[in-house]
Amino acid sequence: MSRAEQAARPHTAREVEQKFRVHGLFRIPDLSTLAGVSAVDDLGVVELESAYYDTPDLRLAREGITLRRRVTRTLGGETNLGRAGGDEGWHLKLPAGGVGVRDEIRLPLEPGAEGDGRPAAGPRTPPAALAVLVRVITRTEPLVLVSTLRTTRARQVIRDGDGDVGELVDDTVHVVGSDGTIAARFREIELEELRGGPLIATVAAALGDAGAVGGEFVAKAVRALGPNAAAPPEVPVFPVPKAKDPARDTLVAYLSTHVRALRAADIAFRREPADPEAVHQLRVAARRLRSGLRTFRPLLDKPWAEQLRTELAWFAGSLGELREGDVLRERLDRHCADLPSDLPAAEVKQLLAEVLGGTVADARARVAELLDDDRYFALHDHLVRAVARPLVGPDAERPARDVLPPLVEKAWTRLDRAAEGLTDADADDEWHDARLAAKRTRYAAEAVVPTLGGDAKAFARQIEKVTEILGEHQDAAMAAAKARELANSEHASADVAFALGVLASNERARVHAARAAFAEAWPQVRRVKWRRWLEP
Length: 536
Prior knowledge:
Largest sheet: 8 strands, antiparallel, barrel
Shape: globular
Distance between the termini: 67 Å
Strand order of the largest sheet: 1-5-4-3-2-6-7-8
Structural class: alpha+beta
Radius of gyration: 28 Å
Order of helices and strands: HEEHEHEEHHEEEHEHHHHHHHHHHH
Number of helices: 17
């Protein structure tokens, strides 16, 4: 890859910072006098011009996401831009867990952007490589210029005996109106961790003692855009419902949690398509949503719920080949280590890489296409409406403590029926049916845990035990079948075919071990004490 191609690829950096609101006359204290500080170096002043892009209804800002194009110039001939000053380019900032923690994905400015006679931060088209990462949020809405900020930034770097600890920037921000006039002005201070450590907390405390107000994390663009940018996101985060609240509140909170999980997994897959965990989380979120709609079905308008379940089944099913391929390849590759030393494990692993690797790569490309499909975006539109205005019946307005336990009991009854009389001699499909019933019961129990509390949680943990056992059973059965298939294929030499046969035999042994583990665990899981909370 050429240097130009490398420069054009998105680059990600983790950003950990604290923001402080200050008034116009605030004076930064002398940080060099703090214990542990060896030096505070002045990096000079730069001017930044940042153009922010969002949908017309500010979906990105409402999710805590910013997409900007920034150009920088130094003042007074200063050339040491430093980290906080020298970040010209396109930047997509995504929340990364925790207040003030974000992943910043960067691309350089487009060729010819500097000194080409055009306004530095005028309307441009955000790079597709960044826009696609948040497509699940924007979907069919265009990205437009929503705000331009001109910032005068004074910078200091804080050092201890081992080097740079943090960078402090003092920003005076001007909000530029559509006519080029200054519409608003504010000042804020940012303390960014470079290496981190306890000294950052010492500096933050000194700023607070001097009158800076911390504890909030509001991006400059959000402050500039006003209250609409600080409105709840499309899919809000709801407070945990109480047992006395309407059952509808538990339904809505459940849908919100897993729609947001689906979106997070979508963004994770777009960022790292080769990460098996990303597609796994996509599939889990879709399945939990579908299962939840099944659990809550007595409270819902049935045609409405079934239509949404159908679309979720389509989506989750479209991920199956990739997810199952990832699992099979990883499992068989790992279990090659158990082959006897006189068998060609390396050649088996090579065959797995060639055959299963190619299948997985093709499936991954199809999933990438799926995530830009109009039907998929329509599904998300439907999910947004489902959280905002679910079609429910009168029972949804009754207290959760009265309505929810019978819904879980229905799932339990199906599991108990599916697991009754299972023996080691039964077919894989019968065990698979029990696994599906166990997953539905587990999902149903976990759906009500936040509302109903400890008894529901204890029950869910018991069901989780057998779900894990039956999941191992299914993985082993599929791996055995795939090993036999490869052993009988034209790709396998005689020695490799024999080794694959041993792999298949080993996996069947794990199938029977899982069945024995289930037989041991099931009587404990089935004890009445775990289900007393389900009784009227």
